[in-house]
User: Which sequence fits this backbone?
């Protein structure tokens, strides 16, 4: 997790700035940036369902993880000699080429690594949030240097991402299981036939009304928030400073501090979730989303916006970890990878496909603040919807039961 997120974060944290910057980047418009993100999400959408279905069939085997790591190792050469020249000369060809490479290696790959790690956590009896914390730690470490590297030469970020990708690939190829699984597992690493889902069973997920309820919830909340945070906030933040170079360096430092705090929160949120429950933790995460987006629309002081940016460190764990637990609580855990890909990652990518370009055009017309207000109102609507639509922790329990600490104490 650490190496994957480090190889991604070193360049992804400044990707939007690289696309829009006139001095250190490509100088694309908001609509063009929206097109890049929209096509990225479209390709990611198709890959995610395939990744989830294949990994559910593979069980604990890491064949797909090795393929993804191999692609991440090619980031530097691809961006320098293929992606940038195509975006400048044949824009749509560049967009499509980048969408394929970035989706295979990172945008769909992240969901695969998270789902695989969550499966390891249940099989080897460790806390997923603490494992995911190392991913945030890796992202934070490289984000600290990313801003300074970017002001020197943006291509340095992509090439360092390749070096980290090579290390990650070697680690996966050389790594072997040492700990014995808590639950019995065949020597080939595959799940037993009784627990391995079939393709028909996977397709049957789409007939579940309860799955569609959370898909709508994710699209109205996480999708809009992702467009705000990835497609708009970096350029908005650096624009608050007198010169772009200073803004880019400060953004790199702020991003690193935020991800360090996020890493710590990934270890603490499971404890909070055991106190308040899965559903309540998820709704708290949405409430923090709303506060952060609206706050950025209402203030223009770099210090205040920086403080508001730190809410991301709390919101992300309070959304991602409860979503994972919601799926394993209310659905068949054997389908966890597919459920996470379809119910969370795929649904958010569908939203990105539909929303990235229109919201980019809205920004071109009315500016960041009015766009942020619009997004915050949609997220508020998502919170109200989720309050009524999401299942309580003791309703429709079809997976691993969840027992709050307070409830255990009362029963005792």
Assistant:
């Amino acid at each position: 997790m650490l190496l994957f997120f480090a190889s991604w974060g070193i360049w992804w944290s400044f990707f939007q700035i690289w696309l829009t910057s006139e001095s250190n980047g490509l100088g694309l418009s908001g609509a063009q940036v929206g097109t890049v993100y929209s096509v990225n999400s479209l390709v990611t959408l198709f890959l995610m369902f395939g990744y989830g279905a294949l990994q559910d069939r593979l069980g604990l085997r890491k064949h797909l993880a090795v393929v993804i790591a191999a692609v991440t190792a090619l980031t530097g050469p691809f961006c320098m000699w293929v992606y940038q020249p195509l975006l400048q000369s044949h824009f749509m060809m560049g967009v499509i080429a980048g969408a394929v490479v970035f989706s295979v290696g990172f945008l769909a790959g992240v969901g695969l690594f998270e789902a695989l790690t969550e499966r390891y956590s249940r099989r080897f009896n460790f806390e997923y949030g603490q494992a995911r914390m190392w991913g945030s730690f890796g992202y934070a470490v490289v984000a600290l240097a990313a801003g300074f590297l970017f002001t020197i030469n943006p291509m340095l970020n992509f090439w360092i991402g390749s070096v980290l990708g090579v290390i990650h690939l070697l680690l996966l190829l050389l790594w072997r299981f040492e700990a014995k699984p808590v639950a019995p597992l065949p020597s080939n690493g595959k799940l037993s036939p009784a627990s391995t889902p079939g393709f028909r069973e996977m397709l049957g997920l789409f007939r579940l009304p309860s799955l569609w309820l959370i898909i709508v919830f994710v699209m109205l909340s996480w999708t809009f928030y992702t467009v705000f945070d990835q497609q708009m906030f970096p350029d908005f933040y650096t624009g608050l400073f007198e010169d772009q170079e200073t803004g880019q360096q400060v953004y790199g430092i702020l991003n690193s501090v935020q991800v360090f705090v996020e890493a710590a929160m990934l270890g603490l949120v499971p404890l909070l979730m055991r106190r308040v429950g899965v559903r309540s933790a998820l709704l708290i995460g949405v409430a923090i989303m709303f506060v952060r987006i609206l706050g950025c629309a209402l203030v223009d002081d770099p210090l205040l916006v920086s403080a508001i940016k730190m809410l991301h460190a709390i919101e992300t764990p309070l959304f991602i970890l409860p979503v994972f637990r919601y799926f394993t609580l209310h659905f068949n855990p054997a389908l966890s990878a597919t459920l996470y890909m379809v119910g969370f990652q795929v649904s958010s990518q569908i939203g990105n496909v539909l929303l990235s370009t229109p919201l980019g055009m809205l920004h071109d017309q009315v500016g960041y603040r009015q766009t942020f207000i619009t997004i915050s109102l949609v997220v508020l609507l998502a919170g109200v919807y989720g309050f009524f639509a999401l299942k309580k922790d003791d309703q429709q329990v079809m997976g691993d039961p969840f027992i709050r600490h307070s409830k255990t104490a009362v029963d005792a």
